[in-house]
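Intended use. Records like the one below are meant for learning the mapping from a protein sequence to its folded structure. Do not use them to infer anything beyond what is encoded.
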Amino acid sequence: MKCVHRVLVTVTTAVAVLAAPTAALAGAGEPDRSGLQRGLDAIIAESAVGALMEVRDEDGVWRGTSGVSELGTTRAVPAHGRFRMGSITKTFLATVTLQLVAEGRLRLHDKVGTWLPGAVPNGHRITVRQLLNHTSGVPDYRRLLPMPPTPEFLDNRLRTWPAAELVRRAVANPPTFEPPGSDYAYSNTGYLLLGQIIEKATGRPYGKEIERRIIRPLRLHGTSAPGTSPRIRGPHPHGYVPIELATGRRLVDLTVMNPSLLGAGGEMISTTSDLNRFMAALLDGRLLPGHLLDEMRTPGVKEKQYGLGLRWQDTSCGVRLYGNDGDALAYQAWSFTTEDRRRQVTLALTPDFRGDPDDAVDALLDKAFCD
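Structure written out for the chain above:
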C-alpha cells in the first residue's frame, strides 16, 4: 500500500525533538505551572515525540505542550490538537450502554447470546456487565493480529476490519478463563460485542449513538467516532509506531490508519478540552443516574481498580482519580478527574518507544492533582 512509505525515520532521530520549543499557555495572574511544563518536557526527553496537556481547576485552565508535532520539523504541538484516544473510547461506549440500561432497553444481566445469537460459543453464560468490566473471559483479538513491531502490521493499515470478523478470530480460541465472572482479563473483543449490542438495541451504529447522546449534548466539537475514515481532521500531532525492517527498527508515521482495527473499544478521536469536559459531566451525574454511576465505579473483581468502562487510581496525596487511559498504537492518552470534579487533567502523547512513559506520566498526574 502506498501509505506504508509515507514517513520513515530512525528511532534515534526522535532524540532531536529534545531541542524543540515548549509552550505553556496561561493567563496573567494564574499560579506558577512551571512544574507541569517541566514534567511534560521530561516525558519528551525520555520517551515521546510530542505531548499536550490541559489542567482545569479552581485557578482556571492551563494548557501546555512539548516536543514537536512532526518528526523532521520544528512545528510545535498544537495545544488544541486532536489525537486518537484509544481505550478512553470504552468510557464513552460504557456510558451509552448504561444509558440504555436506564431506559430499560438493556439490562446488565442480559446475556450476550440473547442479543447476538451464536456470536460467542458460551454467550448464554456471559452478561453485559461482564463485557463492560472485563470479566467475560472472551479472548482479546488484538493479541491475535500482527502488531508493531512486526512489518506485516503495515500491510493492513488501511484495511477495514469488520467487528464480526475480529470477534470470530478471537472466539476461535478458548476462553481466557472459565466460568465467566470468575476473573479479570482485559478484552477489546468484549467492547466490540457491546458495540454490536448497542446497534441491536437502538437500530443505529454505536458511533451514531455516542454522537447523539454524548458528543452533541456536551458540545464536544473536537470529538468524533471516525468509523473507517483514516485521517484526523483539524490540527493534530503526527503519531508513530516502531517497525522492524531489513535496515533495522524504524519509526513509521501511522497518523493515517483505518481505525476499524481499534473499533468500539478504541477508535475515537478527541482533544484535551473535550475529554476534560466529558469526564466532568460523567462524574457530575449529567450523563447517568446516580445508581448507575455507582455501578460504573464498582470493580468487577476486588483487586482491580476497574469498573464498567471506568478506572481509578490514588495519588500520593490521597486523592482518588476517576477516568481512563488509552493506547491507540501511535497515540497514548490519560484523562482523569477528582470525584468532586474540582480538578480535571488530560494528557496525550505521541510516543517514540525509547522508553516506557508510564512512571513519568504518573509523576506528572501526581503533580497536577496534588500541588
